[in-house]
Amino acid sequence: MDKNEETLHKLIDKAKQGNQIAFSSLLDYFWNDVYGFQLIRTKNENDAEDITIQTFSKAFDKIHSFDDSYEFKTWLITISKNLHVDLIRKRKRNILESSEGRNNDVVQKALDDAPSAEDSLITEQNLAALLGYIKKLKPHYQEVINLRYFHELSYAEIAEKLGEPINNIKVKLLRAKKLLAEVITNQK
Fold first, then answer.
1. Are 64 and 25 within one domain?
2. Which SS3 state, helix, strand or coil, does residue 122 take?
3. Where is the RNA polymerase sigma-70 region domain (predicted)?
4. Do 93 and 149 reside in the same domain of the chain?
5. Could you list the residue range(s) of the whole structural domain that residue 30 is in?
6. Lower CB density within 10 Å: C or N end of the chain?
7. Neighbouring C-alpha atoms within 13 Å toward the C-beta of 60
8. Where are the alpha helices (DSSP H) in the chain?
């Protein structure tokens, strides 16, 4: 076992124990591999980035199930490939569902971009509830969610604004979304 493999095994062990720095290091180390893989498959930067983030999120959630007899990169790529397949299936299902029973109502609804008064009210109520959930997070998690989803800044722009490395922003956003999902789930 060479020095890099030994270091990698130590990082994986620390990550299995919940060490956030180890997660961040693994993300830094493998981000380009997974993102590059998805960019070739999807030929779309947004999809590749979204799937890569989901890959690391899922991998970090399931890291305790990682078997050391396999390569970590292979495990990540497999997760990523499965997420991409799921995305394709979901899109196909949505297309099929929207094309079934084509009638004027469906076409009209698709063409009508303006939300109804009821839709606007529901959106406002959902947004207010979401903002309430976000306020329950620690301030640094609130900030990255706000910058990414409400100000629609890229990871690079957020990293520059906060003076942090881009991979820290990615991990922080992953963590923030996971914590936000837990807060929302616990409220229901």
1. yes
2. helix
3. 34-93
4. no
5. 3-98
6. C
7. 25
8. 3-16, 20-42, 45-61, 72-99, 104-111, 117-134, 139-145, 155-162, 166-187
* pTM across the whole model: 0.56
Domain end position, chosen among 98, 129, 156: 98
The distance from CA 170 to its chain's CA centroid, rounded to whole angstroms, is 9
pLDDT in tens, the chain (188 residues): 566 778 899 999 999 998 888 988 898 899 999 999 999 999 888 888 889 988 998 898 889 899 888 899 999 999 999 999 888 888 887 776 766 655 545 544 544 445 556 656 666 677 777 888 889 988 988 999 999 888 888 889 999 999 988 878 888 888 888 888 888 888 76
Instruction: Clarify whether residues 85 and 123 are in a common domain.
Output: no
Q: Which amino acid is at 168?
A: N
* 47 close to 54: Cβ distance less than 8 angstroms: no
Please indicate, yes or no, whether residues 90 and 151 belong to a single structural domain of this protein. no
Spell out the long-range contacts of 28-37 with Cβ–Cβ below 8 A and sequence spacing 24 or more. Answer: 28/167, 30/56, 30/72, 30/73, 30/76, 31/56, 31/167, 31/170, 33/73, 33/76, 33/77, 34/76, 34/77, 34/80, 37/77, 37/80, 37/81
